[in-house]
Design a protein that fits this description.
By secondary structure, this protein is an alpha/beta fold. It has nine helices and twelve strands.
């Protein structure tokens, strides 16, 4: 059906994540500031480092503002927060903004009004929460950002943040696509939520990585990190350009799953006619990699409960926290993928 005769090269790409900004990393509650790829075979809920007395959180009220609990990654993140709250005897106030930045700002204000001692925020976008965050900080409510950041300074709009290195993730995806296609081919991109740190960085990291190569982006559409939306968007791309597409780079694995479904429905074979790469590392992606339908997935752990609560405990104990911490991620291919490694 297609004219490709490319050999599949599945080489594990190793790299270092960018160092987190914001000071020394002597007591980071998240992983080390640099994130070399590793070959862990099991994904477990992170545990407290043991360097902090977590009992200081018992009876405290922590507000968790989720931007949108609408995909598997977000659900795992929310469950991680709920598990940590139960473990440490914390009263958790949970809100879901359903991808509405104005609602998320209102949710944050409401949690402060309800007496939250700490706020953990997963921002929907980089802009739109500044006034609510500033108000919380002015009331001496520490703010911990997880997974995405906002435009603004630590110490003013937030206390600290824990994130993955989204640029590094994108670079790993670009490298494995380039290796597999022999440095030449046509790429389709499915982007995440516009205005989100993860989307901005994963797009820039990928585009910068393929600059000067013979890899060409021939389709670039938004699917908002949603599987069903990605399937529809990919179906439209294939209808117009199906025989031109060599690989699909998806900003998350839910969209990769949607792309795979669309590729199959259009009569192509994922992993042979069209290669698919995603980010996050859920069990579904691991299964697709092992089945040969997905080329690779770069992990991006959603399990922020333990590290975020440990930061709160450090602050409660009067310890210094850094402005930013970076999680460690891994590129998974058929050589090291394991269903147990997914969340």
């Amino acid at each position: 059906m297609r004219k490709k005769a490319l050999s599949l090269v599945l080489a594990m790409t190793m790299g270092l994540a960018l160092a987190a900004c914001g000071g020394e990393k002597d007591e980071a509650p998240a992983a080390a500031a640099e994130a070399p790829a590793k070959d862990d075979k099991e994904a477990a809920e992170p545990q407290s480092s043991g360097e902090v007395d977590m009992s200081v959180l018992e009876g405290k009220t922590i507000g968790f503002s989720q931007c949108d609990n609408g995909n598997s990654w977000r659900i795992a993140e929310t469950e991680s927060m709920q598990a940590a709250a139960k473990k440490y005897g914390v009263n958790l106030i949970y809100t879901d903004a359903s991808a509405d930045i104005a609602k998320q700002a209102s949710d944050i204000e409401d949690m402060v009004a309800q007496g939250a001692d700490y706020l953990i925020i997963a921002p929907q976008e980089e802009d739109g929460l500044q006034a609510a965050l500033q108000s919380a900080m002015d009331k001496d409510v520490p703010v911990i950002l997880v997974d995405r950041s906002v435009n603004g300074e630590a110490g003013q709009l937030y206390t600290s943040q824990i994130m993955s290195d989204f640029v590094w993730e994108a670079e790993q995806c670009a490298k494995i696509i380039s290796e597999t296609l022999g440095g030449k081919g046509n790429i389709a991109i499915l982007q995440g939520t516009q205005g989100a740190t993860s989307t901005n960085d994963r797009q820039k990291g990928f585009m910068d990585a393929i600059e000067g190569t013979d890899l060409k982006v021939v389709a670039d559409q938004v699917a908002n990190y949603v599987m069903d939306e990605a399937q529809d968007v990919m179906a439209n791309i294939l209808q117009a350009q199906g025989d031109e597409i060599d690989a699909v780079y998806c900003h998350n694995d839910d969209m990769a799953q949607g792309a795979i479904a669309a590729i199959k429905a259009a009569g192509y074979t994922p992993g042979k006619d069209i290669y698919v790469v995603g980010i996050d590392g859920p069990k579904a992606a691991m299964e697709s990699i092992l089945a040969g339908e997905q080329l690779a997935s770069c992990s991006c752990s959603p399990l922020f409960g333990e590290p975020a609560f440990e930061l709160c405990a450090k602050i409660e104990s009067g310890q210094k926290v850094d402005a930013s911490y970076t999680n460690e991620d891994t590129l998974y291919t058929k050589d090291n993928a394991s269903v147990d490694a997914g969340f």
